[in-house]
Known about the structure:
Layout: E1 11-15, H1 19-30, E2 35-39, H2 42-51, E3 56-60, H3 68-78, E4 83-88, H4 93-102, E5 106-109, H5 114-134, E6 138-141, E7 144-147, E8 152-155, E9 158-160, H6 164-174, E10 181-182, H7 183-191, H8 200-220, E11 226-230, E12 234-238
Parallel strand pairs: 1-2, 1-3, 3-4, 4-5
Antiparallel strand pairs: 6-7, 7-8, 8-9, 10-12, 11-12
Amino acid sequence: MSPTWGSSGVPVVIVEDDAVIGRHLQQALESHGYHASWFxxxxxxxxxLRTCPCEVMLLDLGLPDSDGVDIARQVRAEFxxxxxxxxxxxxxxxxxxxxxxxGADDYLTKPxxxxxxxxxxxxxxxxxxTNDNAQPASTVLGALTLERSSRRVxxxxxxxxxxxxxxxxxxxxxxxxxxxxxxxxxxxxxxxxNWYGSTKTLDVHIxxxxxxxxxxxxxxxxxxxxxxxxxxxxxxxDAPPRTGSGDHQGRQPExx
Length: 256
């Protein structure tokens, strides 16, 4: 699947078992130029995705056939570039973290208005277009190469499998290696400049991105950049040392 990330005509899959909510979401999206397909079960949505390319999934966590977290995990395993936004009535932080850990890119807590959903969608789609076009085509940091035009990341020629938001985060940090980047700036650049609510989604995505980079460092060693947590501020991508033994090899992923 190769996303176009346009502002209209974007194919969206809605997974919502409530008929009133599902129909309302479908009508709201179609009235704003999206191509919306609505399903009441996760398995029906999965079957649709396997035959019809899609770019966005709006996923309710409380489904009749399976838990939305499990569906998110299956979808992410098969469609790494798909934008997944959870729609949930669960307000506990542990539930939100579970969904993000499963592969969701964002979440909206019910009840929400169609206006808020549409604004969040526009922000995500705009972010992909802006991030890909505003920066150099590629960035090389030691063994790591980030290619914006194809949205691919390689370590010594071997491609890393990153989620869409993980790629955006890595690109944002790689734009300013060895420079502190605040949480607020990362949220604005990767998610939405008007983001409100918890920024836990940033921590979850950073944690998974860090684990992927650490696994790749098993072969690349000290030639891999690492992500450092700056308590009370944000994060920094430390470029690998140009010479010398350095201290990156064998480093364990930092806690959030």
